[in-house]
Design a protein that fits this description.
The complex is a heterodimer of chains A (474) and B (1512). Chain A is of the alpha/beta class. Chain A has 19 helices and 16 strands. Chain A starts with 5 loop residues before the first helix and ends with a helix. With 1512 residues, chain B is an alpha/beta fold. In chain B, helix 10 packs across helix 12 and helix 28 packs across helix 38. The termini of chain B are far apart. Classes of the chains: A alpha/beta (474), B alpha/beta (1512).
């Protein structure tokens, strides 16, 4: 259980990052896994709580106290075993997860939390390094076949689980390589594609079939899949971006964030862009939306050599500490500075983009107004937004990336081919077993949930796999 | 409806089996055998002076029972028989007995005819019945309501037989009559009872109070009624049901105490009967079976067995030595021949274990025996006119001190015998030596008993492994339900540290029956423990009495003694290693033929568990016919198809089946199992009759852990020895909780209650076990086993075990009621004072589908007509029924402790000090006007900080008998945790470790509890006295006894309750849920009409308004909360309290961590007000305005309909909802007060005489006589002083009182500073208990001729928890002298066993002999022992102390000063002698210096701050 009172002895230590100048000069990962000593110190800080809120905070219920302790004792091998019980892809989460576990770590009440995410990373990095992560072919086959549509984190997790349960798994992917958002959405500097490849290769070695360049609804019909497999699960993600339909939206230079990010990943992978190139080099770049995707755009733009990067956020700046109605162990709504933010950007909070303007069809300016949010006496109501009179202003812009989130899956043929029911938000509707209105057709991940975290997608994949296993075994 | 023992039949949660009794006992005899009426009168006088040891129930004139046994008064009987034309043959040639007969004449005549017929069938002469006169004018209504008719049955001896044969015939006659009547239908057969039938002794007894006996039976006061022996008994029973037959004495004994192992003893004995042969009885033997009459008390069963052993040829002392052996295994001082005698007899019979003081007589011998622990007192005087007076207390008979030539006490395990024929006292060593050497026991056992080590190691070719396939360890672990937690919390701590892991906080996981995860069968059984009616024992500090010995092989005819009887294999403990098992399996000795039976189950081949078990049992039975004497049940070789039957089911099932067919004693049962791994598993297996266990999968798991790098390879051997050591110690802890000292007696004793198993299943496989909510049967257990088995083979490429979640919360593990969601919602609600958030919390807590783990989840309210919430009594009133739990300052931080106190005071509710005292600064408001005084002051086993000042500053004094998380266990605060502040409030020394013993050393029995209640009431007459009990079967009956002991409030704790530190076994497996406890308590108290006079509080994971309402409906007036209070202050259930590492500053003393505490009294107040508000909402819905109207209203509750859970749906809650059928005027809630009769106490006069001294501090000195009915003398006087002057009291010797006579119990308890009590004479137990600065001087009387240092003048447990003060005793003291003394300075001239146990401070000087086990658990203070004969070295317990010569000048001066004082105060000859040759005497002193204390004194910084008890 770590060291008794270790948390009073050791401080939290964060993962080391390259200097900003250095990291902006390349596309690769710029963080360095903790040393064993450092990780052991962090493990020593864990209190092995009788009620581990970290696990409660973790969507995939990682048995964090157990592996913290094992790392503390230097038994990384066993720690890896324990970690892989709940997490199919620690190498992804230990890099891209916002670590809700740390937010609900009991130490967080009055101390910096245990560096759980960094501990996770050393476990999995070491596991790969030592060759503990090996392809394990299942011994017997159940004779059941499952098709998974989409190879993002949900699809991969689902496939991995079903394969472990000895079913025959085929994963369909519309792109050239598997990984979905992991391969094409998340920038290389946050998650190197070789890491994704390493995992998908391993899964392939374990017997999972990947059919890439195969878009269901286009290259292959869902009906066919339904006929040829015992169960089909849709893990197509939530790729439909929220748009900003205001004056000047048609101007050249306004893009969805994901277009930009995908293109950069494709560039690095030497794949065809399929669209016209977008470059931030020597441009005034505006990113609308203060979330992770926006952040990724900032990092990418800076690496491409943008002249300036500005980030606009509609909501007011969050406080530095939790407010009283946002107590621990809830996810803390506090001001966070991402590594991309660190690398340089101007931030505006509480601003609304009223219109785009330009010259010759080319974007030149954004017209903004400051807004405030007013809470009515009825606390159950959401606060109403009000523009502040006379606060209008404009900023120069050559390139705008709209990173305002996603509104569910794209409503393409995959969803329309057979009559799949959607929910109010436009996501695929399922029962509590994650099965759609069509028997044998399941859905998981962002496609069912709406946009969310990688770790939630993994959870979705795991849970749906379990349900499918029960479904096909009965 | 009443059963044939006169008690009500089993109903609701009441079971007559739970009844207990305890008492005062004694005898008066003429050593020379001279008969006189005087002796009879003396006996009655003794009885009358023990009346405070008895009790009365709701009817003030109905006692619990009193009786007397004398020799047959020939002259008297001859006289009275003549009057009714019965002609008696000469003395000794007729038998007589008092017979209880039905009042209905047809029934009576039927029985009388039957008796006459049987007498003549047995060839004896029926002489007639004599109507025994009686006078019922003084006795109670309840007693009269079932009073029988009394007759003497007179039987003449057939000429040809001798007296002993005649006695046997009388037994045959008595048994035949009894058996016959039990078999026939007769309306009033329950009235029938033969008190005794003998030519030597006669018994008069009944449902009487001691003072009623004399007038009730006028026979007894007839001058011609003469005897040399009068043995008496005053009974204190837990019930108030009229039971004439259960009064003592029985035919040979009167008993004070309790046989804890009764169920096992009776079972074993009944089986042994099948092998009985006896030349003396011959064919008659069959007629008297079963020897143990069914459904009588433990004492009656003991008496039955003793009687048979005696009449079949053993002498009375021999038989007693068999049944109550001394603790011979670990005692260095015991002689070889005695050890061998006991060892031999252990092959014949297990001890009848439990606290016992037995007085016995067969008409010639009269004597007493004490159990191995010596937990009941027996004191005696011998006079110069050959009289012996033996009794539970000294001084019950007025004797001129000049005539007393010896004052003594019975020591643990010792026998005291008077032979009226030899006309002398035969001392223990003499009688035992005679008996031990009457046969060649030493030779016999040397030849026959084989140590397991001495068995040859089988050659490997003998060991054929016939298992087809061996599964990998992980699969086996999964098959047997191992989880990651089993490795982490159960195995690893044991392997690495050699002891069971400690945990903290309570058990908030579902009962096995409600769990949604497959449970092991073990988990359906809850450990029972001793509370009130007998004490738990300390298996660590008093290891000297413990024995783990196991004997394998077959037993022989108990009624004979041959060398072959001892042909057994001896194990030192019940856990056997793989290699030892091989030795047994393949041994070649024809006496120990071992055969292995597989308990693997193959669904296709075997059909069902039931079928398979039946098959195994039949096969075993056949095997036994071949002479096999060891059966090994094995679950080795489990595989996908071969599923292990739960080992407990197989083991217990076989045990019961062999009991039923009478062959159990011919064989030993060994389990070779992969299932058992933790202490509780072994305890249940042994408790249900398995003799030894080989936990092979544990050994294999060790290898696996080493392989996985979780354990070190080179420590393999130490892991194995640690495991064995820890399991044996853990088992000792479990058995000692029940007051049992030997594994042999525990085996088959069934000290468990089942929860969630149905009647037919229990009846067949766990016969006789209590199981009160029904539940699963064998089919369901089979289903659950198969479920687990299936899981083991799922996901076969996952290399890990299940997470578990039983000990720590795990997201997908076992359900915990306190989980991240409930914890965070509750905290948010109280911090923001937001009732809406609280409702979110309570919605989760109250939803039985989410919160499915406890019995209350399956209860729901019946629909009622709602009322407006405005009509319901206000929340501010309801909160007054709330109390925070007893958490000590020490277990939680100062900040947390004070926050709770402030909150509760502001609410008008109650907070509790817990065990650990309270800083006097908190007794008054602080500078901010906040009052941190805890209204409830707890008095726990350690008595830390229990001063007179502490006591007077309470509104309620709470005696903690047990704690939910660890009933029957003590505690320990290591020296490192005893901070300056803690030491101050506990009146101990910083850095010196503190041990809290398992029992209250002044409560070994129910009459002792009544005494402590009386002490406390005298210490603070305005405070209410409460007694805290823990739920277990029988707790209602105990509560009835406690109510009769005049407690004002009884707290019933559920086993779910929390703790700061406790072994995991106890947290999880000991005690029962609160619902069962509260409901049983309510039912029994109402049945006895005792409910009205006590308030009832319940606690145990109460969280919400709904919980409170259910608690009230089941019977509670008040409610206790602890965990939820901590959570409202910020506790997040780290469960690290025992590590001092609480990161939120609650359960820690670490200064830095305490800074993290953010709790506030408002948070606590908000929580309680929310609770009360929710209660009101429910009351409105139920249509109830006044809370009182909810109490006991089980009619408003019903079992939830549509329970879906496959296991839970089998439960039956009707016993919990049962309402006893009582008259309408019997109250269901507390409405009146206990009458403590304090105004009659002698202290009232003392206070009057000391008025001036108290107010003006002017000196006063006066004299007074005293006798043993004057109890707790000086305590009320001290109370008055403490209220006025605090602990500082008055200047030394301001009040001096000189007493003469025999002081009652608790003389000078909590005596304030400034009072000096001088006593000439002697005193009983508990002198100077809690001494708070006063001075006590006890000397022999001026004109008596006793040699002080050879005579006992004070009783047991003197100075328990003394804080400060002085005591000088010119004579010897009994057992446990100065136990847990904090600071008193004392000189005494000799003491018994366990002296200075758990002492933490003070100075003890012993100028004489010392008993065994001196200084056990002694962490502080110093003892000086005058060791002239150099015997001390063998007497002390070296665990915690070092011995030195007295060399330091400081210590020499201190010692000399104390001895000088002693001489001055007592005129002690010993002291005079010592001081006369001081130089030489000094070299004869041994200084006993605790290591802990030494270490602290060496640490200068501590040394410079003198310990607080250094008052002069």
């Amino acid at each position: 259980m770590g060291e008794i009172k270790g948390f009073t002895k050791y401080q939290r230590k964060n993962i080391k990052k390259e200097s900003i100048n250095k990291r902006l000069s390349h596309w690769n990962e710029f963080t360095k896994t903790l040393s064993l000593n450092e990780a052991q110190e962090q493990g020593a800080r864990c209190m092995d709580c009788g009620t581990p809120f970290c696990q409660f905070g973790c969507p995939i219920e990682n048995i964090i106290p157990d592996w913290n302790d094992l790392v503390y004792k230097g038994n990384l091998n066993e720690a890896y075993n324990r970690l892989s019980l709940t997490n199919n892809f620690p190498e992804f989460t230990s890099r891209v997860c916002p670590a809700p576990c740390e937010n609900s770590c009991v130490l967080e009440i009055n101390n910096p939390p245990v560096a759980i995410k960094d501990i996770e990373r050393i476990i999995i990095d070491e596991a790969f390094k030592q060759g503990w992560v090996r392809a394990k072919k299942s011994k017997s086959q159940s004779g059941k076949k499952i098709a998974i549509v989409g190879s993002g984190p949900a699809g991969l997790a689902c496939g991995d689980e079903l394969n472990k349960k000895n079913h025959e798994v085929t994963i369909f992917e519309k792109n050239e390589i598997p990984g979905g958002l992991l391969s094409f959405g998340i920038p290389e500097f946050k998650l190197e594609k070789k890491i994704v490849k390493r995992r998908t290769q391993l899964m392939q070695d374990e017997g999972i079939k990947f059919k890439t360049n195969c878009e269901i609804g286009k290259d292959e019909s869902l009906t066919n899949l339904m006929e040829n497999f015992d169960a089909v699960v849709l893990c197509g993600g939530a790729e439909n971006p929220r748009d900003l339909q205001i004056e000047g939206r048609e101007l050249d230079g306004i893009y969805f964030a994901m277009d930009f990010l995908t293109q950069q990943n494709r560039r690095l992978l030497n794949y065809d862009f399929r669209t016209k190139p977008i470059s931030a080099k020597r441009k005034n770049v505006i990113v609308i939306g203060g979330g992770d995707t926006g952040s990724d755009c900032i990092g990418t733009a800076n690496r491409q050599g943008a002249k300036s990067v500005t980030n606009l956020e509609l909501m007011p700046q969050l406080p530095n500490n939790r407010s009283s109605n946002n107590p621990w162990p809830q996810w803390a709504f506090v001001d966070r500075v991402s590594t991309s933010h660190e690398e340089g950007c101007i931030k505006y909070f509480g601003v609304l983009t009223k219109k785009f303007s330009g010259k010759n069809g080319k974007l030149k300016k954004l017209h903004l107004v400051k807004v405030e949010f007013i809470q009515s006496n009825d606390k159950t109501q959401k606060p109403t937004m009000k523009e502040i009179e006379g606060s209008e202003f404009a900023i120069d812009a050559d390139l705008v990336f709209i990173a305002m989130g996603f509104i569910g899956p794209k409503k393409d043929k995959l969803l329309t081919e057979i009559n799949i029911e959607l929910d109010k938000k436009g996501n695929v509707k399922t029962d509590n077993k994650k099965m759609t209105n069509i028997p044998g057709l399941f859905a998981a991940g962002d496609m069912r949930l709406g946009q969310s975290l990688v770790v939630w997608a993994i959870n979705e994949g795991r849970v749906v796999a379990n349900n499918i296993d029960k479904y096909i075994s009965n | 409806m009443y059963g044939n023992n006169g008690l009500p039949i089993k109903q609701g949660l009441y079971n007559p089996e739970f009844e207990h009794d305890s008492c005062g006992v004694g005898f008066v005899a003429n050593i020379g055998g001279n008969i006189s009426h005087d002796i009879v009168q003396n006996g009655i006088e003794v009885l009358e002076n023990l009346k405070h040891r008895g009790a009365v129930g709701a009817d003030p004139k109905t006692g619990d029972g009193a009786g007397i046994m004398t020799q047959v008064p020939d002259k008297f009987l001859r006289k009275v028989c003549k009057k009714v034309n019965i002609h008696l043959p000469k003395k000794g040639n007729y038998g007589v007995g008092l017979v209880f007969l039905p009042v209905v004449s047809e029934d009576r005549h039927f029985i009388e005819n039957l008796i006459e017929k049987i007498v003549s069938e047995e060839g004896q002469v029926f002489l007639g019945f004599r109507d025994v006169p009686f006078n019922d004018s003084e006795i109670g209504k309840v007693a009269i309501s079932v009073m029988p008719i009394f007759k003497h049955l007179l039987i003449g001896k057939e000429k040809k037989i001798d007296t002993e044969e005649f006695e046997r015939k009388l037994l045959v006659i008595r048994k035949r009559i009894g058996i016959k009547i039990s078999q026939i239908e007769l309306g009033q057969k329950n009235y029938f009872y033969i008190c005794s039938l003998s030519s030597k002794t006669i018994i008069y007894k009944g449902q009487l109070m001691p003072e009623q006996l004399r007038n009730f039976f006028p026979d007894l006061i007839d001058k011609d009624y003469k005897s040399a022996i009068a043995l008496v008994h005053s009974r204190y029973s837990t019930n108030t049901f009229p039971t004439w037959a259960l009064a003592h004495p029985y035919r040979y004994i009167a008993h004070n105490g309790e046989i804890n192992t009764l169920k096992g003893n009776a079972n074993w004995f009944n089986v042994r009967e099948k092998q009985f042969k006896n030349s003396l009885f011959g064919k008659d033997l069959k007629k008297i079976m079963p020897a143990i009459a069914p459904s009588k008390s433990d004492s009656a069963a003991f008496d039955n067995v003793l009687e048979l052993l005696i009449l079949s040829g053993r002498s009375l002392p021999h038989a007693l030595m068999m049944m109550i052996p001394e603790a011979y295994t670990n005692d260095k001082n015991i002689s070889r021949y005695k050890k061998d005698f006991y060892q031999y007899h252990s092959c014949l019979m297990e001890p009848w274990d439990g606290p016992s003081a037995i007085c016995f007589s067969d008409g010639r011998y009269v004597g007493s025996i004490l159990d191995r622990n010596g937990l009941r007192p027996l004191r005696y005087w011998v006079t110069n006119n050959s009289k012996i007076i033996m009794s539970s207390e000294v001084g019950p008979l007025n004797v001129d001190p000049k005539n007393i030539i010896e004052k003594g006490r019975l020591q643990p395990g010792k026998l005291f015998l008077v032979d009226t024929k030899q006309k002398r006292i035969i001392r223990d060593h003499e009688i035992k030596k005679d008996i031990c050497q009457q046969k060649e026991y030493s030779k016999w056992i040397k030849r026959n008993i084989k140590q397991i080590d001495s068995l040859p190691i089988p050659s490997s070719k003998n060991i054929k492994n016939n298992l087809t396939k061996n599964e990998p360890t992980i699969i086996k672990q999964k098959i047997f339900g191992y989880t990651l937690e089993d490795l982490k919390f159960v195995l690893k701590p044991i392997l690495e540290d050699g002891k069971e892991a400690t945990g903290s906080m309570g058990a908030d996981t579902p009962l096995a029956i409600f769990s949604k995860r497959p449970q092991l069968l073990f988990n359906y059984f809850k450990q029972l423990f001793a509370q009130v009616t007998n004490p738990p024992i300390d298996p660590i500090r008093e290891e000297i009495v413990m024995s783990g010995q196991v004997l394998l092989g077959k037993e022989q005819n108990l009624l004979e003694e041959t060398p072959e009887h001892s042909k057994r294999i001896k194990l030192d403990g019940p856990i056997i290693s793989n290699s030892d098992l091989q030795k047994i399996k393949f041994n070649k000795d024809e006496n120990f033929v071992a055969v292995t039976f597989s308990i693997l189950f193959n669904k296709e081949l075997d059909g069902s568990f039931q079928k398979k078990l039946k098959q195994i049992f039949t096969e075993v039975k056949n095997e036994l016919k071949k002479g096999t004497s060891i059966i090994i049940l094995s679950d080795k070789g489990a595989s996908k198809k071969n599923i292990p039957i739960p080992s407990l089911l197989a083991g217990s099932g076989l045990h019961q089946s062999l009991i039923r067919n009478g062959s159990r004693t011919k064989v030993s049962i060994i389990l070779e199992t992969g299932e058992a791994r933790e202490i509780h598993h072994f305890a249940t297996l042994i408790g249900y009759g398995v003799n030894a266990i080989n936990p092979y999968l544990v050994y294999e798991s060790i290898e696996q852990l080493i392989c996985d790098g979780e354990l070190e390879k080179n420590k393999h051997n130490s892991y194995l020895s640690n495991y064995h050591k820890a399991v044996n110690k853990g088992l000792f802890k479990v058995i000692s909780k029940m007051g049992i000292s030997t594994i042999q007696s525990y085996c088959g004793a069934q000290i468990f209650e089942a929860v969630g198993l149905n009647e037919s299943f229990i009846e067949k496989y766990f016969t006789g076990t209590t199981s009160r909510i029904g539940g699963l049967g064998i089919k369901d257990i089979e289903r659950e086993t198969l479920m687990r088995h299936k899981l083991a083979y799922e996901e076969n490429n996952v290399k890990n075990l299940d997470q578990g979640g039983f000990y720590s919360w795990r997201a997908s593990g076992e359900k915990h009621n306190w989980n991240p969601e409930t914890i965070s919602l509750l905290q948010q609600s109280v911090r923001t004072n937001d009732y809406e958030v609280f409702k979110k919390y309570s919605k989760i807590v109250n939803d039985p589908k989410i919160n499915f783990g406890s019995i209350k989840s399956y209860l729901e309210f019946k629909k009622s007509k709602p009322i407006s919430i405005d009509k319901v009594e206000p929340a501010t009133e309801i909160v007054k029924r709330f109390a925070s739990g007893a958490m000590s300052f020490g277990s939680i931080s100062k900040e947390a402790h004070e926050t709770i106190a402030i909150a509760m005071n502001e609410l008008g509710a109650y907070s509790n000090t817990g065990e650990g005292g309270e800083n006097p600064k908190r007794f008054t408001e602080d500078e901010n006007g906040k009052l941190k005084r805890s209204r409830i002051k707890q008095i726990a086993q350690g008595r830390f900080g229990v001063t007179i000042e502490y006591l007077v500053n309470a509104d309620q004094l709470q005696i903690k008998m047990a704690q939910g998380a660890k009933p029957g266990e003590g505690g320990q605060l290591p020296g490192a945790k005893v901070s300056d502040e803690i030491a101050k409030t506990r009146y101990t020394t910083q850095g010196v470790g503190l041990i809290s013993p398992p029992p209250h050393h002044d409560i070994y029995s129910i009459e002792d509890l009544a005494q402590l209640i009386y002490d406390l009431k005298k210490s603070n007459p305005t405070a209410q006295i409460s007694v805290k009990l823990v739920s277990e079967s029988g707790v209602g009956t105990i509560a009835a006894g406690v109510s009769k002991g005049k407690a004002d409030l009884i707290i019933i704790s559920g086993s779910e309750g929390g703790t700061g530190a406790s072994p995991l076994t106890s947290i999880k497996n000991a005690g029962l849920p609160m619902e069962l406890g509260i409901a049983e308590m309510q039912q029994v108290l109402v049945m006895n009409d005792l409910r009205r006079r006590v308030r009832i509080q319940v606690d145990g994971q109460l969280k919400s308004g709904r919980d409170i309402i259910i608690g009230a409906m089941l019977g509670a007036d008040e409610f206790g909360f602890a965990t939820s209070v901590l959570i409202s202050m910020g506790c997040v259930m780290l469960r690290k309290c025992h590590l001092n590492a609480c990161s939120v500053g609650i359960a820690t003393q670490d200064k830095k961590l305490r800074e993290n505490f953010t709790g506030h009294e408002d948070h606590v107040k908000n929580y309680f007000l929310f609770l009360a508000e929710e209660v009101r909402e429910f009351m409105a819905k139920l249509g109830i305005e006044k809370f009182d109207d909810l109490i006991g209203r089980t009619d408003l509750l019903e079992k939830r309909s549509n329970i879906k859970h496959w296991k839970a749906k089998h439960i039956n809650l009707s016993a919990i909802l049962h309402r006893p059928d009582v008259p309408a005027d019997v109250e269901l809630y507390n409405s009146s007060k206990q009458n403590h009769n304090l105004e009659k106490s002698s202290d009232v006069k003392l206070i009057e005489l000391c008025k001036k001294a108290i107010h003006n501090k002017t000196s006063v000195r006066f004299g007074s006589s005293i006798n043993n009915s004057n109890r707790s003398v000086g305590t009320m006087l001290s109370s008055v002083i403490a209220k006025k002057h605090g602990l500082n009291g008055l200047p030394n010797d301001t009040i001096q009182i000189d007493f003469e006579g025999s002081a009652g119990q608790s003389f000078g308890a909590f005596l304030s500073k400034g009072i000096t009590l001088r006593l000439e004479g002697d005193a009983n137990d508990y002198v100077g208990k809690g001494l708070s600065g006063g001075k006590i001087i006890i000397t022999t009387q001026e004109d008596d001729r006793l040699v002080p240092e050879k005579n006992i003048i004070v009783g047991n447990v003197v100075l328990y928890g003394a804080i400060k003060g002085e005591m000088y005793i010119n004579g010897k003291a009994g057992e446990r002298f100065a136990v847990r003394n904090s600071g008193a300075k004392v000189v005494v001239e000799g003491i018994g066993d366990h002296g200075c146990e758990y002492m933490t401070g003070g100075r003890i000087v012993v100028l004489g002999e010392v008993g065994r086990n001196f200084g056990a658990g002694m962490s502080g203070g110093i003892a000086y022992v005058w060791d002239r004969n150099k015997k001390f070295i063998k007497k002390h317990n070296k665990e915690m102390v070092h011995l030195y010569e007295v060399k330091s000048i400081k210590h020499e001066q201190e010692l000399k000063k104390l001895i000088t004082n002693h001489l001055e105060y007592t005129d002690s000859k010993v002291a005079k002698g010592i001081l006369a040759d001081w130089e030489k005497s000094l070299t004869q002193f041994v200084k006993v210096f605790p290591r802990d204390y030494q270490r602290v004194l060496k640490n200068k910084s501590v040394f410079e701050q003198p310990p607080v008890y250094d008052y002069d």
